[in-house]
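Two proteins, back to back. First:
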Amino acid sequence: MLITSRDTGRWVIPKGNPIPGMAPHEAAAEEAFEEAGIRGIPCPSALGTFTYIKRRRTRSNRELTVAVYPLAVVEQVASWPEKDQRDTRWFALDAAEKAVTELQLKALIAGFREPVIPASLAQRVLPAFRTTARKRVPMVAWFQALMPTQGRFFDHFEAHAATLVAGADALAKLLHNEGSIADNIATIVDREHDADDITREVLQDVRRVFVTPFDRSAITSLIGVMDDAIDQMNGTAKAVELYEVTTFEPQMRDMAGIVVEAARVTAEAIPLLRSLGTNAGRLHDLTARLIQIEGHADDIHDAGLKALFKAHGKTAPMDFIVGREIYSHLEKIVDRFEDVANEIQGLVIDHA
């Protein structure tokens, strides 16, 4: 989503000044609503920063630094405060990169990837295997010639990553009270079942085929930690359902925003495993992002648990116990994404 600047008319992302009483990512979400009518779920961990020169009519120009936060869009409303003051437009990522003028912002947009559009197991379309490596190494050409009939490990990994994206989206909507609680829980449960089916297929292929793209233990470890992530999403949903929780702490919502971002990053990283040598640099950046946001999630978890104890620990201990269980599941989700990052880093080290 790009909007036009009121002073120069150039295309920019929604942005604004810090808002007293709001965390930076919350202020970013508020600005997205006021300037573009966007409602959504922000991630509290910034993607990066860019600088630009703020032109002022009555005072000297000033260089400003902008922190950029990812936001999973829920809707664009029909009316918003600055609707008549700016143009707004949805761009494809490559077109958005060309439309903005700030070089650092161009780089941030160029480095961003849309999450995979989830599909049910029955609707999955298995992508074709890439062939660029065949031209370089004859042995790889022989190996890849075997792959379509010797297991679909990469296809299964990518399908599983799509279930993570769908599950994370439903979890975030659940904790942000977007839509029906029952519907969001049902979506998480369904995607967890899809993920179990995919994991079962991978384990069957590991036992069945003679040639595998990586060491068999690496394959089972990677699909295992991916499956653990959505299992913990399911555990969170089940706890909400069991204890009939309907309101959620701000730190819980923030952790859900991090889960959405972790799933998006994972969904970008997994297809790059098809060509580890070519994609080693990008995989390093993506796994570093997963590890960074896991550390941020730990801080949010600790702060949330402390606030929960102060509010309910002595006066309503059952509320504290229930909240602690939800926090525990959320922390474990993000921990499992860090495990995914570690598994991918190990593959890069061994094979790139």
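And the second protein:
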Amino acid sequence: MMRALIIEDDEVVTRFIAKGLRQHGYLVDVARDGREGLFHALEQAYDVMIVDRMLPALDGLSVLKTVRSAGNTTPILILSALAEVDNRVEGLRAGGDDYLTKPFAFSELVARLEALQRRPRGGVAADTAYQAGDLELDPRRRTVTRAGEPIRLLPREFALLEYLMRNRGQAVTRTMLLENVWDYHFDPQTNVVDVHVSRLRAKVDRPFSEPLIETVRGVGYRLRDPGD
């Protein structure tokens, strides 16, 4: 079942889209302003997002830019009454994958969402699946399994594991993780990396007999590959 996030402050439009998507078998979450929408986008895993440009609290383009800077590659469809070419270009450059102007037919919205979900994410590199022992990560399908069991990760956890797997066998520093997974230059004293690694371990390592994520004292972390 597909999960969709709608970030839209117009209640009539929101109800119209949410009802239609649920009838098409989607699980739907709704946010009424940009800040609420950004929170959901960064803390939950979605198959697609629908984001209005003109939102209270935080505008849609700012939401897009923050989501993309966090390494989240979920397909995003922008909704807007702004229909000029420059408006569409601005939205796509901010991180949108498609742009649909209001008013719109629901059938076109669904067709665009289906097209977005058929696209590979992240270009050529996204077609590369990673494996370390019985742990597998597929960036294109956004799936993680271990010993054949599916593991559901939040977007940030997925990005963190993907970076560790791309560098499996090598120690990566907290600074490297902050710059490549968060795309921000945090205070080096922050514990955000350690908190997320702990959450990742709880899902990837603790239910299984052999831990793969190692702490490298004085450096950072390493994803061990049992095959090496």
